[in-house]
Specification:
There is one protein chain. With about 140 residues, the protein is mainly α. The protein has two domains: about 90 residues, no CATH class; about 40 residues. The protein contains seven helices and no strands. Helix 5 packs antiparallel against helix 7. The N and C termini lie far apart (about 45 Å).
Length: about 140
Amino acid sequence: MTLNYVTWALIGMAGYSVTTLFMKLAMRAGAPSSFAVLAVAVIIVAVSTWTIAVSRGDIRTLIAQGFSPAFFWSCLTGVVLAIAVISLFRALTLGPASVVVPIYGMFIVGGAILGIIFLKESLTWQKVAGIAVAVVGVYLIAS
């Protein structure tokens, strides 16, 4: 059975939602820092994704391409993702999840806008309205 992109997006959304809860619970249970929680989580994610990518042959293919644009963008993705996740965990250490998560969740709006600008994805009134409603919603939740 092959899952479509909407199903994968919903699984990712649910996973990120539960991740926030578990991180806050780890901190309440006495984890020394959000970085300790993140270190454990990253090890699990790294081993899992490495295993999947190697078993599919993806790593061998990427390495065989050498210093290609795909390799460059992959490395840049890792750097930016590390900054994003470290920032999220630090913010969750300092503030309430009910404020931090909606603000962090604005990456959805940011990603949509970047897709429209740089990937030449279509801009419709429906997307404009959705982005505006999301921004207002985050403001209302986080304030």
